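Appendix C: a fully annotated inverse folding record. The material below is reproduced so that readers can follow the format used throughout the book. The structure is listed first as tokens, followed by the designed sequence.
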């Protein structure tokens, strides 16, 4: 706090790290463009990883990748435990996904994004030994109303009442996977409509938690890393996220227990990422409900990004024009 010449007190705003991190998601999205619709998801991911890593190296922070590309993408960079940034500035955990939706990118489909989440060092749940978790995400209306331990029908009816909407107008986002056949059937039998997501449940969760989103709820089994990253965004949006770890093998469960993870336990937002100093940034690779994709506009390349910060409760949408000649 400081005093002006007139004696007025004001607060110095703390630094919004996300406004620097967005440069890295913009770069990753731009570098992925030549691979859109080309059927080469590894090529797209590799180009995005390289671009994101280079830009992260210029940011003044001491970042440690808690949730990275890892073994699932055979990535040599941005792996769990990698240190990024200049080493000067705040110490942070970061979760990165240079392309959330590599298959979408390769096929030329909607809703591929490049994203980074960040929080204070040591605050993110490290669930890398258990790859899947069951999740439910809603906007603020779901707090104290929706519970992952209830049936999907009960949750739909309760949320519809809280939002003062007919159940028949409720839109529920679910990843389009064989494992969700029973869930999809239960949603429809409850009287609600499904919106099947080909990929990218991070964007789906944010859409469900946003006051102007098209989804009322996002539910189903997806990646644990994506669940933790989504929690960083949900804390900024004031929504609800609940998860339960879903090990696929006895070995996976044993590894998780050895790491101190809890099973048959509901992880809420404050356990997925502690504190309110969380940031989330995403840039569109292809057009989607959350952000528009990269576009060439004559001499410029235009990107659209969303920047969320929990501490201030701000949502920024950033449209940036980049001189195309700088990216050749």
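Designed amino acids, in order:
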């Amino acid at each position: 706090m400081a005093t002006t010449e007139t004696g007025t007190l004001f607060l110095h705003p703390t630094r919004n790290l996300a406004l620097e991190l967005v440069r890295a998601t913009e770069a990753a999205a731009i570098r992925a463009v030549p691979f859109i619709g080309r059927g080469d998801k590894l090529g797209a991911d590799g180009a995005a990883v390289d671009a994101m890593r280079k830009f992260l190296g210029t940011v003044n922070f001491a970042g440690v990748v808690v949730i990275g590309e890892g073994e699932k993408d055979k990535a040599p960079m941005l792996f769990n435990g990698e240190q990024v940034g200049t080493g000067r500035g705040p110490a942070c955990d970061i979760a990165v996904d240079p392309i959330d939706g590599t298959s979408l990118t390769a096929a030329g489909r909607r809703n591929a994004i490049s994203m980074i989440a960040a929080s204070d060092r040591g605050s993110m749940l490290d669930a890398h030994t258990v790859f899947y978790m069951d999740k439910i995400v809603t906007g603020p209306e779901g707090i104290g109303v929706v519970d992952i331990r209830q049936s999907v029908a009960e949750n739909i009816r309760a949320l519809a009442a809280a939002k003062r909407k007919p159940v028949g107008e409720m839109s529920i986002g679910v990843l389009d996977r064989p494992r969700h056949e029973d869930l999809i059937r239960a949603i429809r039998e409850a009287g609600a409509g499904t919106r099947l997501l080909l990929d990218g449940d991070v964007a789906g969760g944010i859409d469900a938690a946003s006051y102007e989103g098209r989804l009322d709820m996002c539910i189903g089994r997806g990646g644990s890393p994506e669940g933790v990253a989504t929690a960083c965004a949900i804390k900024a949006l004031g929504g609800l996220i609940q998860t339960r770890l879903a090990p696929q093998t006895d070995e996976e469960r044993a590894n998780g227990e050895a790491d101190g993870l809890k099973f048959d336990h509901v992880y809420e937002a404050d356990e997925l990422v502690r504190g309110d100093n969380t940031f989330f940034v995403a840039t569109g690779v292809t057009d989607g409900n959350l952000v528009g994709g990269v576009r060439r506009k004559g001499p410029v390349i235009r990107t659209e990004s969303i920047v969320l910060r929990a501490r201030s409760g701000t949502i920024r949408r950033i449209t940036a024009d980049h001189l195309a000649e700088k990216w050749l």
